């Protein structure tokens, strides 16, 4: 049920639309959102970080241990040795050299270094536990004082 308009009315409507600027444009906000989506969103990680993650995965698979902070500390040990020799080394080359150092040190056993890292972790954990225990005692005393006051009322 479309209504047929005479040709002169159609021409007048088209002229009015052209003079008025045509149809309403979209807001600028939507165009910015669209452009962000078209860009692809998130940026990629730097190559040095990707290489370091790959090295951590390689060490985890090689040693058959869980990954985590200890593996990152082990990588840091090897990286620090290399940085001591060449302080101006590039981050990507540093990771490659750390992998070479790990493979060279493998017969000597990187497990010993992991054990040292685990021992350091337990020592720091024990220190934290003793300090937390002291805080707990004082909080128990204060709560005991509060309960004594509430019984007096």
Q: Choose one word for the global shape.
A: elongated
Round the mean pLDDT to the nearest integer and report it: 75
Percent of residues in β-strands: under 5%
Q: What's the Cα radius of gyration? A: 34 Å
What separation lies between the terminal Cα atoms? Answer: 86 Å
Largest sheet: none
**Secondary-structure element string:** HHHHHH
Q: Which consecutive residue ranges, at least 5 long each, have pLDDT under 50?
A: none
User: What is the oligomer described by this structure?
Assistant: single chain
Helix content: over 70%
According to DSSP, the number of beta strands is 0
State the secondary-structure class: mainly alpha
How many helices does DSSP assign? 6
Q: How would you characterize this protein structure?
A:
- With about 150 residues, this protein is mainly alpha-helical.
- It has a domain at about 45-125.
- Helix content is about 75%, strand content about 0%.
- It is built from six helices and no strands.
- It has helices at about 5-20, 30-40, 45-65, 70-85, 90-105, 110-150.
- Helix 3 (about 45-65) runs parallel beside helix 5 (about 90-105) and helix 4 packs across helix 6 (about 110-150).
- The radius of gyration is 34 Å and the shape is elongated.
- The model has no long low-confidence stretch (mean pLDDT about 75).
